[in-house]
Amino acid sequence: MTKEIRTQDVLFILYSLDQSKNMTRFIDLAYSTKGVLDFKHVDLSDLFTDTFNSEGRIGPFESEEELLQFSYDLCEQFKLDNICVCDVEAVNKSLKDAGNVNKLNDFLIENGEVLSDPDRKKKGLFSNIF
Amino acid sequence: MLTTPVIKDEDTVFPGENWFLYWKTSASLWKSKIESLRGVNKIIIPINWSFHSDTGDNIDFAGTKPETDLKKLVQICEDLGKEPILLLPITPVPYLPNGGIPFLLARNEAVDEAGLLNAAADSDGTIHHFYSFFDPRVFKAFTKFTRELAHYISQSGINVSLWGYESGYFDNGVFHSYLKDRSQSFDQGFTRYLHAKREELASDDLSFATKESEIELRREYEQMVKDLYLGSIENDLSFCFQGFKQIGYIFGSKKDIYLSSIDHRTDSSIIDEVLSMLQFGILPSTMLVPTRKKSGLVNIFRDTVLGNNFTDQSYEDKTIQNKSEFVFHPSKSLSFVCHKESPQTLSLLRESGITEFVDDFFKYDTDFLELEDFSWEDELESSRLFYYFSGNDLTLKSLSAALKMFMNGLNVFIDKRGLDESLKRRLESFYIENDLEIEKIKYLCLIETISMGEGRLFIFDSSDFNNTEINKDKKDRKNQFWDKVFSSLDLRYPSIEAEEGLRYTWFDRGVASSELKFERVKRVTFFNPTSYKKKVKIRYPSQFIFQKSIDEKNVSMNNTTHEIELYFLPKGSISLDFGVIL
């Protein structure tokens, strides 16, 4: 049986491909129910040496694997249960399916890729980041 | 305990800034609804294209649905002594399904560069997707609509003002229009545009191949399409057309959809967004702000900053001299007259150090005026103290306007950085022709100042800042430069030490016969949107005479000679009036 995922236990990561930068991937927004992740507070050097903050987003990631690895690292760093990684298709489908912002995050979980980190500790520095 | 917020009917039909959404209530209730609006002069009526036409082809004005009877609506407003103002959008709107286009035309979804759907969430949280205005079928239907609307208005004998408007949101000092998209329709249209351009140039011009030129051409194409929509209104409705507005929606960005899903917007962020828009001449709309957020301090802020006076002034008929001198208007002491949407201009302003200086010295008291629309004659009666022109933007016409302003007693700054050589020569001949005495001061760069009557002209070249020893501690040195410049102007201006988190804004009005000892009356209104106690200290010069405090809420005041201290509780606010002697 699949464990039900609660939106309050999820860090949502929305990313897109940038045509002008060789179709590399950029994270446009990361948030949880506690707030929006301020990229300025993400210690990139510990997570991913070639990644940088640019124009309010994080990237570039050459492949989906890189982006998922980064997201997984974020999950560990911020001691979260789950990360929901959504590409443009997943976001578009969720926007259409949800119809209202109240249901949007449920649909992102349904349409995005959810990574879980069962070994994490409950309390962490996540609360200081938002 | 969680409770479901009660949505008031007034919020549905009157979502803010005196807008009346006529399709949201029965025509039989229009009169009682509008009657309930006390103290309101202008009723803003945004025309809902999709409500008048499902198909884009058949258009209903009082034919089938009684709520499409604009004549009746206008008549009710007039009977109640209120002036109706019609608004017609030239872009998708964020508060209507499909962005407000007729149902059958909603075929080409508008997407951004990354393919993400263009959308916005309304005050109920309903997500509305936009459809491309680059779709030729949409444009064709729009022109039909403007023609029929013009016919209906003229045949019905409706006497009403109409404005075109572009919807969008404001982020990081830039207005993002909802017109912009990268849909299939856009791509197809842009390809046709490129072909036409190539034929026009009759060559395989290599400049088409560069990325920069393509970006520039895309902008050109967008502007052309925008002009086509606007032109359709201007041509068909010329008899009632008043002008064009850019309306920025608070909570109107895509990011706001997700922020709304987690209810993560503070009062401070709402206030900041409104103040930023006003600084750039964008009309803010709070209609997407959820009802539960439109309370307490946000409500006080809306009433103060975006209230009836603001609406009246925003939609003033330029052909009628009805501007009341005795009503408070938003006041700006320093205006940047420039291409306000040009990243290069904004970057040059930042590099000159002026924006950082005024952010402190004239905090919340500056704005940006678009050079293209600027008319210097309109400024002769203005209460603005200074005008700043960036040489990079100046043409012969705008340089002449700046010089005429100086000759008419206004204070003008001109940064020669980027100024065309021929204009520099024009400036030299202006000195000679008028036999002007130039005072030259060398401090970080050569500053030329000229006085004539009450006017002062201040000319310098900020590119010199990069060639001197000031590269070290650049920021401080530039601040010192501007501090010296404004000190030399013998400027008397209140100094405000406000704790972080406080916001304030300035207003200004002329004087009544009982106040003739003053030149103007200035009002500063403070808001504490935080959840903490805050303090502010105001030191005001002898030219400022403190008159009174009004609308005090959760604030206490200590007033000594030329100094006022205010102690705010969370969500406190107050207005202070000063008579100004020049």
Layout of helices and strands, plus pairs?
The complex is a heterodimer of chains A (130) and B (582).
Chain A (H helix, E strand, L loop, with lengths): L9 E9 L5 E9 L2 E2 L7 H4 L4 E3 L2 E5 L2 H14 L4 E5 L1 H11 L2 H11 L1 E4 L9 H4 L1
Parallel strand pairs in A: 1-6
Antiparallel strand pairs in A: 1-2, 2-3, 2-5, 4-5, 6-7
Chain B lengths: L8 H5 L16 H6 L6 E5 L2 H4 L17 H10 L3 E7 L29 E3 L5 E3 L6 H21 L4 E11 L2 E4 L6 H18 L9 H26 L4 E9 L4 H8 L5 H13 L3 E3 L10 H10 L2 H7 L14 E2 L3 E5 L4 H10 L1 H8 L4 E5 L15 E5 L5 H12 L3 E5 L5 H13 L5 E5 L1 E8 L2 E6 L13 H15 L6 E4 L4 E7 L10 E8 L6 E6 L4 E17 L2 E18 L2
Parallel strand pairs in B: 1-2, 2-5, 5-7, 7-8, 10-11, 10-12, 12-13, 13-16
Antiparallel strand pairs in B: 3-4, 5-6, 9-18, 14-15, 15-16, 17-20, 18-19, 19-22, 20-22, 21-22
Report on this structure:
The complex is a heterodimer of chains A (130) and B (582). Chain A is α+β, with helices and mostly antiparallel strands and 130 residues long. Chain A contains 5 helices and 7 strands. In chain A, strands 1, 2, 3, 4, 5, 6 and 7 form a 7-stranded mixed β-sheet that branches. Chain A is globular and about 35 Å long. The relative contact order of chain A is 0.21. Chain B folds into 3 domains: 261 residues, TIM Barrel (Alpha-Beta Barrel), CATH 3.20.20; 155 residues; 86 residues, Immunoglobulin-like. Helix content of chain B is 32%, strand content 25%. Chain B contains 16 helices and 22 strands. In chain B, strands 9, 17, 18, 19, 20, 21 and 22 form a 7-stranded antiparallel β-sheet that branches. A 7-stranded mixed β-sheet of chain B has the order 11-10-12-13-16-15-14, with helices on both faces. The N and C termini of chain B lie far apart (57 Å). The chains are: A alpha+beta (130), B alpha/beta (582).
